[in-house]
Amino acid sequence: QEGSLCAQHCLNNLLQGEYFSPVELSSIAQQLDEEERMRMAEGGVSSEEYRTFLQQPSVNMDDSGFFSIQVISNALKVWGLELILFNSPEYQRLGIDPINEKSFICNYKEHWFTVRKLGKQWFNLNSLLMGPELISDTYLALFLAQLQQEGYSIFVVKGDLPDCEADQLLQMIRVQQMQRPKLIGEETAQSRDQR
């Protein structure tokens, strides 16, 4: 992960390619800001609400590299993908079982990451980890429940993800993971402690 560009990493991990750059996501955010500004102007450009709105920073992006759910959602629409809030009334009405999904996008305190099925296995593709973390089918529901309990917002990605080499390869073989990948910086801190 570079900087706070976790939304970019989240999208690219989801799609399994370098599809989005910070510039492209910034462009989507600016377009959303402009649409919001135009909607606010409908109430009158001299209104107190409009002047207050103009003075506030963008809610769609900030200088740290954070992008909002609206930016992520609009970026995914280009691929024909849609987000549904996990455990929302709509999700429950559809009677969806997490194990039958293909991917989830998770957010907590401005950090975004992807949980995706590649081949026949689930992976936590959090950009703060040194590598992908294998999640068993039986652990998936518990993992998502734990994230929700910790305050994460979880979105189900609906639609057909683009074909990718990892998915094709993992259709033929199963991965075994002997140990969980460390958080970025955890290994450096550990070796420093050992010294």
UniProtKB/TrEMBL annotation:
A GO term from the CC aspect: nucleus
Biological process (GO), any one: protein deubiquitination
Protein name, entry field: ubiquitinyl hydrolase 1
Domain of life: Eukaryota
InterPro entries: Ataxin-3, Josephin
Josephin domain sequence ranges: 1-172
Catalytic residue list: C6, H111, N126
First-level EC class: hydrolase
Lineage summary: Eukaryota, Metazoa, Chordata, Craniata, Vertebrata
Protein's UniProt keywords contain DNA repair: no
Keywords: Hydrolase, Nucleus, Protease, Repeat, Thiol protease, Transcription, Transcription regulation, Ubl conjugation pathway
Location in or out of the cell: Nucleus
GO terms for MF: cysteine-type deubiquitinase activity
Pfam families: Josephin
Catalytically driven reaction(s): Thiol-dependent hydrolysis of ester, thioester, amide, peptide and isopeptide bonds formed by the C-terminal Gly of ubiquitin (a 76-residue protein attached to proteins as an intracellular targeting signal)
PROSITE patterns per UniProt: JOSEPHIN (PS50957)
EC number(s) on file: 3.4.19.12
